[in-house]
Specification:
179 residues; mainly alpha; elongated
Length: 179
Amino acid sequence: MDGTGVQIGDLPASAPHERGDAARNRLLLLDAARTLIAERGTDAVTMDDIATAAGVGKGTLFRRFGSRAGLMMVLLDEDERALQQAYLFGPPPLGPDGAPLERLLAFGRERLRFVTTHRTLLSEANRDPKTRFSAPFGVQHTHVKVLLQAAGSTGDLDAQADALLALLDADYVSHQLID
């Protein structure tokens, strides 16, 4: 277990070993997708745009990720893993050596950035209960609950964690800050 009570084995496993050219193409495609999405927004980026920007054929993109949704889920998953690494193992105030309340506030700020960046994809994923309440959500919930307990909060910590995470829901954030 790490400092938040989350078992390290609960984190997603790393990808299987890839051939050199496949790994290179994967990175090119992910970098191109991130760049184009940052410039234009998720809805304005096509698979053709991504393949062209990466300098690979569209077939390579589809063989690698299966579909546009598959590519978007990989982008979301990689960014989710990076955020998990930061709050489970990173430096304070987000990481385990920070004070519980400071960690909770830092988590909220980072999660808000994540949700703002990925709001369209998260909103789409939220429509399916299997993706809305997936393993990353469970890790977040446990993290927030442990921090609340360490900060001295009393009462129903599950309900408190749910309430705090609801404020970071993609649809709620979009409604409050963007729409």
